[in-house]
Specification:
The protein is built from 27 helices and 19 strands. The chain is α/β, with parallel strands linked by helices. The strands form four sheets. An eight-stranded mixed sheet has the order 8-7-1-9-10-11-13-12, sandwiched between helices. It has a seven-stranded mixed sheet with strand order 3-16-15-14-17-18-19, with helices on both faces. The longest helix is centred in the N-terminal third of the chain and has 27 residues.
Length: 731
């Protein structure tokens, strides 16, 4: 008997080695028309970081010389090229801490090995004294205007047969901001050969301090052409104070020769299996820890590779599938690139994710009524169900995870009526008044009710589900909170996932973690350190957090010099309006201090190394989470665990997270929309008496070390076994 773990992504993926110069040349010269321009967009998850100086950097930055209209490099090349390795054919290592992070955090003289440092990436670090966020925003806006205008010129040139002009424009655009200066932006012209940005607001480090100067500007995120989904629109839309950025490129039908060429490249390229670090890390950690503790004896994982696969030949896919299944117990699900993208990018992220986080369809930004991507969502769920059935043997347990696969339990139940099926939703579940606005509301609920046990992160989400089933399907829950559906009794439970303390403790022993901890203590020896770490999206409440901190400093100005707030925002596809607004708030806060070299807020919109992350958790005096809606925030659980041997600092936590239901009033619960309450929570956390702080921490630590991820796995599977056995006894 096996446990079939079903999630969108496998814990492993495929790593292609394109270091062979002939293969690189073939990919660079490959026509980029293997996919229609209207279907090209961002990768399905956060873009993978390629090693600096690798061949993949050449692939993603070089222009493709073609007579066709310049468009972004296809996703299958970007994604597969991002797995490029060194000549030793080893998986890409985690990138070292970037110079701008190290410089901004720590004095240059602190680390012995850091004698030289590059200037900070001013596109990633906000709140630098002397910087002008309005100038930066205007800079990028002008660049995008130039790009859009040049793209139109390229389209006209291609139509007129002026291939050389089109190639020149494409080459200029591929260099991005490295070919632009402030002076010629005002003239709306693109200069060639320049690699510096002359900016009166730029800063560099001298003797550990920031001083204004003219610096070589690192490449901006705007240096890559915007994804096609931002350039294609059914109708033109003008933007105030500037031309339209949404320019539809000339559509060209894919050619069979380009597809065959792509397949032949990756057919001959060597590949290896590597760990996949995107997706649900908490689930991966939980399954791995449960295996290590013996709670799971035999398991098989079912999911996609997390990468486009249209460029791979069928025989290559079969070989990959056989290797993954026999050596890693992974059963890959292969679907077309358009299905994977339509499922994830459109239906999951544009419809399900906002709706489940209370962005109702009445919101102008919601796309809940645009149901064209439902076909892709249903197709991917059907493909998953087929693979589950193919790998199922009588007695197996099927455990389906998260909102990407809501239909799978019902689809599998139709084919295997006697199967033991569990489903767990890792994100929030909204109230019935929000959920009922979904056009596919009944189909999704019926899919979830195909499971024997439906699990949620908190009692609130489980209660919302039972109420929604009653409102939408007309099925009232039983007194024991079960639901009778299709001749079966479905258990609805609340079981919060936890962290893996064992792995966290081992990771904290890394010498790099200790080095970063020492640097933090030496950098700010006399200041209270407040830390936050979030994605920058409309649901994480980063803007509300900054506004609350601004109010706190206004009420208690002495903390401008007594505290430092380090806010890390992971790189993701963030709203430009939100990013600009948060940057403006940070700049406003930092402008209120007279000490130019010591701003009250350090805002980093970039990924940091895991060792840096752990160091921040250990050395923080206060940790802040102000999410507007979130299923479970495991970062604050990890903070609690890491504080055992340090300050045992308080936790400020939004009451709208699943973690609030687990940790309760042992932390400082706040309403993110109430700036006054958030401001007072900052003050209370920084002035809390030691006795109260230790009493609160003792209870929090007991909670996170008792309800671990392994405990979560055992509890859910035990509940599933019990429910299934009771059902079959009755039958």
């Amino acid at each position: 008997m096996s446990l079939l773990v079903v999630s969108l992504y496998l814990p492993h993926t495929i790593h292609f080695n394109l270091d062979d110069p002939s293969l690189v040349e073939r990919v660079i010269s490959m026509p980029i028309l293997s996919r229609a321009p209207s279907t090209v967009s961002q990768p399905y998850d956060a873009p993978m970081q390629a090693p600096t100086g690798s061949t993949s950097q050449l692939l993603t930055n070089s222009s493709v010389q073609s007579s066709a209209v310049p468009t972004p490099i296809p996703n299958f090349i970007r994604s597969l090229a991002s797995r490029v390795t060194s000549t030793h054919n080893t998986p890409p290592a985690s990138p070292p801490p970037t110079a701008d992070v190290e410089d901004f955090f720590f004095k240059l003289s602190t680390p012995p090995s850091a004698a030289t440092h590059s200037a900070p990436d001013l596109t990633s670090v906000s709140g630098i004294p002397g910087s002008n966020s309005a100038t930066s925003v205007e800079f990028e806006r002008n660049f995008r205007s130039i790009y859009a205008r040049s793209l139109r010129k390229a389209a006209a040139a291609a139509a007129a047969g002026k291939n050389s002009q089109s190639s020149t424009i494409s080459s200029n655009l591929s260099n991005g901001l490295s070919n632009l200066t402030i002076s010629n932006i005002s003239e709306h012209s693109v200069s060639e050969g320049s690699s510096e940005v002359a900016s009166p607001t730029s800063s560099t480090f001298s003797n550990g301090l920031l001083t204004p100067s003219i610096v070589t500007q690192p490449k901006s995120r705007a240096s890559s052409p915007p994804p096609a989904k931002h350039l294609v629109t059914p109708r033109s839309q003008s933007i105030q104070n500037g031309p339209s950025l949404r320019v539809a490129p000339k559509k060209v039908q894919p050619s069979k020769s380009s597809q065959l060429d792509a397949a032949s490249v990756f057919k001959s390229a060597p590949w290896s299996v590597v760990k996949y670090h995107k997706g649900n890390g908490g689930l991966r950690n939980a399954i791995a820890r449960a295996e290590a503790e013996g709670a799971i004896s035999n398991k098989r994982w079912i999911g996609t590779l997390g990468m486009p696969t249209d460029a791979l030949e069928e025989n290559t896919k079969k070989v990959i599938g056989r290797v993954l299944l026999t050596e890693y117990q992974d059963a890959p699900v292969f679907v077309s690139d358009s299905t994977l993208e339509g499922h994830y990018t459109h239906y999951c992220k544009d419809i399900l994710w906002p709706t489940f986080h209370y962005q109702i369809p009445d919101n102008p930004k919601s796309k809940a009524y645009e149901d064209h991507s439902w076909v892709h969502y249903h197709a991917l769920n059907t493909a998953f169900a087929d693979v589950v059935v193919a790998n199922y043997t009588p007695g197996d347990t099927i455990w389906v995870h998260d909102y990407h696969l809501l239909l799978v339990p019902g689809l599998v139940r139709d084919k295997i009526p006697e199967a033991k099926i569990g489903f767990f939703l890792h994100i929030a579940f909204p109230s019935s008044e929000v959920y009922r606005c979904l056009p596919t509301r009944k189909l999704l609920l019926r899919g979830m009710l195909g499971a024997d046990v439906v699990g949620f992160q908190s009692n609130e989400y489980a209660r919302h589900f039972r109420q929604t089933v009653q409102v939408v399907l007309g099925i009232a829950p039983n007194r024991d909170d079960t639901i009778d559906y299709d001749g079966r009794r479905v258990a609805v439970v609340a079981m919060a996932i936890g962290i893996d303390p064992v792995s966290l403790r081992l990771a904290s022993e890394d010498p790099d973690v200790k080095r970063w901890r020492q640097m933090l203590r030496e950098r700010w020896p006399d200041k209270k350190m407040i830390v936050g770490r979030d994605k920058l999206d409309q649901f994480r409440g980063v803007r509300h957090k900054m506004l609350g901190y601004e109010r706190f400093l206004k009420n208690y100005p002495e903390y401008k010099e007594k505290a430092i707030f380090i806010q890390v925002c992971l790189t993701n596809i963030a709203s430009q309006d939100l990013e600009s607004e948060v940057s403006d708030i940070v700049a406003r806060i930092n402008a209120s201090t007279h000490v130019v070299s010591e701003p009250p807020v350090v805002f980093l919109h970039q990924d940091i190394a895991f060792e840096q992350y752990l160091a921040l958790l250990y050395e923080a005096d206060v940790f802040v989470v102000t999410s507007l809606r979130e299923g479970m925030n495991l970062t604050c659980h990890e903070y609690i665990f890491c504080q055992l041997e340090t300050s045992k600092g308080p936790l400020i936590l939004s009451e709208f997270t699943g973690s609030a239901a687990v940790l309760g009033d042992k932390c400082l619960l706040v309403n993110p929309w109430d700036r006054v309450e958030v401001a007072e929570a900052f003050h209370k956390a920084l002035t809390m008496p030691e006795e109260e702080r230790e009493e609160r921490y003792k209870k929090l630590y007991s909670e996170v070390t008792t309800n671990t991820c392994a405990h979560w796995v055992r509890s859910f599977l035990n509940k599933l076994d019990k429910t299934w056995e009771e059902q079959h006894r009755k039958n």
